[in-house]
Amino acid sequence: MNLCELLVRANKFQPQNGGITGICVLCGKETNYGFKAKDVVSNNFSGWGYMYSGNCFCPVCAYLFSDQVFRHKSWVASEKEFQTFKNDEALKVLLNPPEPPFFIYIAKIGQKQSWLSCLHKVAQSRKNYFIAHEKYDVAIPIQRSEAAKFAKNAQLALDYGITKAELLSGEFHPKTYRLALEGGHESFLNELKGYRKNLTWEVIVDVSRGGTKNSQVAGDSLQHGELAEDENVEEPARHIQSSSTGSGQTSNALRGHVKTQQLLWYPIDTSRSDENSR
Asked: Distance between CA 104 and CA 98 in Å, rounded?
């Protein structure tokens, strides 16, 4: 199943037939009911680099260009349903996808159709899958357990007051280094630097938001069952060592102390808040 076929099923749409016999420029399949390209896309269409050699759009592929919601909105599609979502909800959608087959697209300003690069990237697994993001012209690989770890660390860093620009570049402000060294958290910065140029990390940073509520999304995915089927899920690095009780569980009092110490390490700089909310 390709992406066009999935979206038709998700929206319970019955494709309309055209009158051209030929090869679809998008999926490459033969059709007796195609549409002329000029009847499907505008003269300003910039996605021809994703197309095959052909002479028309088949009825199923033409559907992708019939509704601007596919370009303007973030959405998730499965065989059962099609849903749009806000960017503040993107992290939850990424870490808790529907049953396969499915596909997730994240729009930013609604100008590009980046899902064109993912026609044959419909997800067949909830552990490893591809998504599309408007900023990128390639499919973004998601290993779900790794993405949950990235999300936990990204949101922890945002709560510390580290900016998204720092997280994406791996280059930290002198103040960030100073406070990390003073708090004994240099290893955390080194770990974050190691994610530089990782496309999954870049997408996770983009959709992450600071704050306790948002920070729980990744933590819940790791600890409360959504990733239970994944083996060897690695917890995000703990940058403050804690002792354990005799039962092997960290005491509630210590757990609260650790959280307080983490948030005190880097007081949030409100002058950077606008940058992190993008």
From this structure: 10
Report, in this order, helix, strand and coil percent for the chain, each rounded to 5.
45, 15, 40
Pairing outcome for strands 102-106 and 128-133: parallel
Burial class (CB in 10 A: 0-12, 13-18, 19+), 198: middle
Contact 58, 33 (CB under 8 A): yes
* Residues 130/118, Cβ–Cβ less than 8 Å: yes
Instruction: Confirm if 92 and 63 have CB atoms less than 8 A apart.
Output: no
Pinpoint the alpha helices (H) of 23-143: 59-62, 69-72, 90-95
Question: What's the CA gap between 196 and 238, in Å, rounded?
Answer: 20
Contacts of 129 (CB under 8 A, 6+ apart): 97, 100, 102, 123, 141, 142, 144
The 8-class DSSP code of residue 274 comes to H
Q: Which of the 8 DSSP states describes residue 184?
A: T
Greater model confidence, 222 or 207: 207
Considering the entire predicted model, what is its pTM?
A: 0.78
* Token code pair at residue 263: 């948030």
More confident residue, 175 or 248: 175
CA distances from 222 to 146, 152, 189 (A): 10, 9, 22
Q: How long, in residues, is the chain?
A: 278
Contact 240, 256 (CB under 8 A): no
